[in-house]
Amino acid sequence: MAKLMEELKQNKPFESLQDEVAINIVRTSEYLVRKHTEFLKNYELTPSQFNVLRILRGAEPDGLICREIGERMVTFDPDVTKLLDRLEARNLVVRERRQKDRRVITVRITEDGLKLLAELDRPLLDYTNDLLGHMSEEKLRKLNELVEEVRENAG
Fold first, then answer.
1. CA-based end-to-end distance of the chain
2. pLDDT tens figures, 82-99
3. Does position 1 have pLDDT exceeding 70, yes or no?
4. For the residues of 41-92, what is the DSSP string, one character each?
5. Residue 109: φ, ψ to 5°
6. 3-class DSSP state for residue 145?
7. DSSP codes joined into one string, 85-124
8. Burial code of 73-97, b = ≥16 C-beta within 10 A, e = fewer?
9. What is the rounded CA–CA span in Å between residue 154 and residue 146?
10. Which residues make beta-bridge pairs with 109?
């Protein structure tokens, strides 16, 4: 019996190999998200909040508007404003109205936000190495290529 079938306590075979692979991708994704969420809990961050901080660190010194942040997020979040509210309450981001167009608000990461990410950089690298370090560079490149192909074709 295939490992996925055992994990799901499934006795009947999948309808197709494509069905099995799709379910395997979803299951693996859910597992990785759960582990990532547990890891970030130690820093009082959700994966989405962490993603926003990394996006803003990469956009320094200019910052980004909310729409641009939403477009760059790894996972879809319908309410970027609430995410920013929580990060701003912790002094990890700051919002500023643009002088030329007061309707536009630019978001920037603060020094506290940069310090938190710097504190996370090494443990996160160690964490991802623990998760995927058993695979060769060749396998990782191939896996990356394959999941990108799935995503491109699904779009």
1. 32
2. 999 999 999 999 999 877
3. no
4. HTTT--HHHHHHHHHHHHTTTT-EEHHHHHHH-SS--S-HHHHHHHHHHTTS
5. -80, 145
6. helix
7. HHHHHTTSEEEEE-SS-TT-EEEEE-HHHHHHHHHHHHHH
8. beeebeebeebbebbeeeebbbbee
9. 12
10. 93
DSSP 13: P
Tokens representing 126? Answer: 């160690």
Tokens matching residue 110: 């603060």
Peptide bond just before 61 cis, omega within 30 deg? yes
- 100, pLDDT greater than 80: no
Query: What values do phi and psi take at 95, rounded to 5?
Result: -110, 135
